[in-house]
Amino acid sequence: MAAFKDLSNALTDEFLNDMANNFFGARKDIDDILEYFESLSGKLLEQVEDIHKSCALLQLVCFGEEGYNDFLKRADINPSIFNFPNKTEPAVLTDKPSFSITNKGEYIKWVSLAYHQLAYRVEKYMHGIVTSDKADQGRKIRSLNRIDFYLFAEDINAKIIKVNTNSTPSEVLKFTKSLDPEAVAKQNVTGCVGPECALIDNDMAFKTINIEELNFPEFPDLPADEKLPSFVCKFCSKMYAKNKSEVKDLLKKLNTKS
User: Fold this and answer.
1) Total structural domains within the chain
2) 9, 49, 57, 66: which could form a disulfide with 91 (CB 3.0–4.6 Å)?
């Protein structure tokens, strides 16, 4: 009889250990994944800020808001989509245009560089950039992007709902008490009673991610297949004809900064 009791106690301890590992392990997994999601959110926000900086640079080379809006309309883009916060610091171009004989030719190249930087950053933010991981036999990796980020949020919510439904604290309490014969003999085993169960479960339940409140802007793809799109040349020709001296001054500033 004593041997049977020892076996029963050992099995009970094993059940409790497994339950604790499953319960707390599942909760730790959610905590870890939410922390990781928060870090991705910060990195994606940095990409949005980079896009705004590229917008500010494009507005700079377009001689202000009016020219900026005109440029975007010529590219068949709604300017309101690419609004950016006031006092945004313009991005810095890592490349410098090749030599041009005329100021007009050089101006066209600067505007084209600014536009392509914006197009690249929008592409990276919305869809990600695929690269090869040399450390993993050239495996293709897609960088963080808005589409995958939102899909990840949906996947996390599904995991949270599963944990909240299948691993409730009240059910753990109920099962734990059911393993105690003395508790069974003394009371109706419920783990907790009525509203008390709901209170415990609600207090310890994970909150799902409110996807609608993530508020990461959506940008359209920008036409950037051509190295020098025709609308860039047309816009720059118009601006140069109206602002020759201003273009000359701008080129001096750009060459000084680059």
Assistant:
1) 1
2) 57
